[in-house]
Amino acid sequence: MADTTFDPYNGLNYSSYPYYHSHPDRLFTLGKLFGANPAEPGTANILEIGCSSGGNLIPIALKYPQSKLLGIDASSSQITAAQKSASEIGLMNVTFENKLTSDLQNSQDQFDYIIVHNMVSWVNEQTRNEIFDLCKKLLKPTGIAFVSYNVQAGHSTANLLREMILYNTHRLQAIPEKLEQARAFLAFTINALEESQNPLHQMIYVEARALFENDNMLCDYLIGDHKVFSFHEFFDELDKRQLQYVSDTYLPSMYVGNAPINILEAVQQLTDIVDVEEYMDFFTQKAFKSSIICHKEVNIKRDVSGADLSSLYISSNILLDVPSQDITNFDDGTQSLSFFIKPNGGGGIQTNSSIMKAVLYTIADNAAINPISIAQVIDIASEKVPSITKEEIQATFNQELIGLIFTGYVDITSYMTTASTVISDKPKIYHLARYQALQGEDTWVTNLRGQIVFIGLFEKYAFRYMDGEYGLDAIEEFIFNHAQQEDLSFSKDGQTITNKDEIKQEIKDHLQDSLKFALDMCLLTP
User: Do 210 and 239 have their domain in common?
Assistant: First the structure.
């Protein structure tokens, strides 16, 4: 076994987050969409290379108790933390091992899914080659691998800033000292460039602000090698190992119809997938990609217009221009309605089609928390337009669905989420999120979809009591006790509130907001 005793991450505040785009449900769904036949995640063998302290793998193990998972990492401190969390949560189907990629070269195990998140850009060339080799060697014939990496197109400013950070810290030896010095340099840079109107200064300022607020990335900048890929370079790494690219995990990023209008005509002429991805990355200044890959022998179908989507579930963040209750007649073909994408209202589509108005309103009203099956969409939409048959609705929806997926209006999944759609008298937070809320200074939890949700100090205290055993009055009293112990405080007009009755009212108001937030963020269980 290779030497793993040197651990540059030991003692650092390096967080291990869930990454939704690497979730086996997503890999399974997109693999099927493009013609592959991957294993059902529920009983799959899953490997994560570079698992850190298990923030990504533990939610997967919880969702699929019949699956078998292995996480490896070169950092002994991160593996110890992962093992501790898995043990305290009571997981029996996941193993965390302190190993290097070279330790797996002679492994006889094979996996249905291999996850390599945010690693290949931050290791040396030998380890990078070992990772790609392992994707070939350890992936089952129908297996799917996920690899994410930094992209050349969007990293010119980031690389410039990294070089300055490395120079500014090169005389220091200890990583904590380097981090402290790097933060001081970033603070200086932010302050110096904040008012500048120079376009280059503005780009450096934005990059410095993002880096200053991201301890993980700053650690990587200081510790790891850094390799940014052009897509053709990534593609070549796959090709020489008889692997192939399937898709990006964020489908809208690879759809040429989403290209800026002034370059759309030129990009639409491209037919080679490498050219399409390369140009899309360049024109959108893409800085990070999450790619799905598989063995070259798998028959991948680029034309997905005829794909069978009938068994899938749909989730969406569609915003309605006109509230549902204000629509009296979906059959009115003269009324054109608009739909937008949360959270910033981006995009925008209009339709006067009675069928699509009924379908989009059905999705917006029913798929914000738990995904809704395509069959349910058709059933509910048919009630809004009784003059149109279900067969007509299904035919039109099937024709339009691929476009909605690739433009980002809806997302697809193969599995139902069972989050609560109401706030009960005795609210219950997803037990993983409740566990995470108790951990130190972490200000994030994982929701039932496997997505990261950032929370405030109030939620860190409130969530721990939302186990389905306590009513709201009891939870308010528990939080009040924490306020009395000065674990948290409340203020108004810049002044700390000290009156007990006012504190209790603040807690009551905050709790209602937190419960609504937990409901919207898919954190409450029935």
Answer: no
